[in-house]
Amino acid sequence: MAENSAVRGCMVIKPYGYAIWEKMQRTLDDMFKRTGHENAYFPIFIPKSLFEAEEKNAEGFAKECAVVTHYRLQNDPDKPGKLRVDPNAKLEEELVVRPTSEAIIWSTYKNWVQSYRDLPLLINQWANVVRWEMRTRLFLRTAEFLWQEGHTAHATAEEAVAETRQMLDVYAEFAEEHLALPVVKGVKTPNERFAGAEDTYCIEALMQDGKALQAGTSHFLGQNFAKAFDVTFANKEGGLEHVWGTSWGVSTRLMGALVMAHSDDEGLVLPPKLAPIQVVIVPIYKTGELDALLERIRPIQQGLIARGIAVKVDSRDTERPGFKFAEWEMKGVPVRLAIGARDLDSGLVEVARRDTKEKMSLPLADIVASVDQLLNDIQANIYQKAKAYREEHTTRVESYDEFKQVLDGKGGFVLAHYDGTSETEERIKEETKATVRCLALAEPDEEGICMVTGKPSPRRAYFARAY
User: What information about domains appears in the record's comments (predicted)?
Assistant: First the structure.
């Protein structure tokens, strides 16, 4: 799927991995457009003065910024054949390489919004960003990664909050229906909130090693960026107001979630909806029989394609069937058909499903409909398996000692009372390496006692060790 590149901390996404990202991108893009959003593109470079305009945002990202200071190179007079930065080509103002786009986008929105008639402004962009990470891991945390970022402007706070919640629901729907990944929808604590936001909503998922992964975020920005960049509009009464903003995004981190939530020791286990190849057909033949067999297989292939199923016939004559089986299993192809002339003569086809590794013989006459249904069953089964794991690894505790024992034992989500203060949150993080993942939207208020300080607590929070 990916490998480390010649650039420290950056990855090369290989064709098979990028094909998965493309399916994610197409699906999400359709979902965004159904909710009224349009795509645009903004520069990767942000003047430092613009980046500084929203102070909390600038402070939150300052340590992760890559900065352009010069605009050209020159031949090095002391080292023939080498280059150096031209000392006379210093920029008048440094440019920050985009770690997130609020600054450049909101400085543009100032020109786009004059009246309430221009609102809401519903914009998304697909882009790359750079965050100068020191400890990197493929897909989960790299210096450069791909993502989408939505940025919207509204006439009222209520509209902006509704947008924030709507996009959280879009992310949750995508995660559960396409990634086959159950998620907890919640709101972040002030300690974990996006820099420059009033509220950060999130979806949190649980990986097979018991660690949590933040799979997507949606931020209610209030009027913070509108005021920083003086984005105002004339309301219906003729008065002048600052707009209300949101931003929201998911990234190639979802590729990491896909691997860690579903895969096994034999390789990837891909949900059919995101698999680049949903069905692979491996011909079983003797020397000289391949061309004739491929002609007999073609109607099956065409029938699957007509159903909208991505199918590949592995007709390579350089590898044995056993090698092909292992390779496609490693790549997580959901369904494998092994077809020989005798199978076709007998009217049966050997079918193997990747998620359970079960093999079965199915009637040739119904094979297209059977495979179509099987893909639906696999999608549902992968989700149910992940959901069962999450339920088994979600534990309610009453004491700090029990909290630590669960984290060190089975791991997963731990629901516990704490007093809601930043100080207690930091102490828990320092002593246990666990963080508040979210205050779940579906979790009811429940009076209790903080497991650390003994102070009153209005509700439980989701804690976990996380990526």
Answer: Consists of three domains: the N-terminal catalytic domain, the anticodon-binding domain and the C-terminal extension.
d(CA 385, CA 183): 13
What is 334-354 written as a DSSP string? SEEEEEEHHHHHHTEEEEEET
Q: How many CB atoms lie within 10 A of CB 316?
A: 13
Distance, in Å, from the CA atom of 422 to the CA atom of 420, rounded to the nearest integer, reads 7
Strand 232-234 and strand 240-242: the pairing is antiparallel
Do residues 193 and 395 lie in contact, with contact meaning Cβ atoms separated by under 8 Å?
Answer: no
Q: For the packed helices 253-262 and 15-34, what is the interaxial angle rounded to 10 degrees?
A: 110
Mention every residue, 6+ apart, whose C-beta is less than 8 A from residue 432.
403, 404, 407, 465
CA angle 22, 26, 30 (to 5 degrees): 170
Q: Angle 290-306/367-392 helices, nearest 10 degrees?
A: 70
Q: What's the pLDDT tens digit per position in 48-67?
A: 999 999 999 989 999 999 99
Reduced to 3 states (helix: H, G, I; strand: E, B; else coil), residue 4 is strand
User: Token pair 């697909």 is at which residue?
Assistant: 126
List, for residues 136-184, the tens digit of each pLDDT value. Answer: 899 999 999 999 999 999 999 999 999 999 999 999 999 999 999 999 9
What is the per-residue burial (b if ≥16 Cβ within 10 Å, else e) of 66-97? eeeeeeeeeeeeeeeeeeeeeeeeeeeebbbb
Rounded CA separation 312/305 (Å): 10
Is pTM beyond 0.70 here? Answer: yes
Q: How far apart are CA 214 and CA 209, in angstroms?
A: 15
**Which among 183, 139, 196, 185 is positioned nearest to 21, based on CA atoms?**
139
Cβ–Cβ under 8 Å, residues 151 and 123: yes
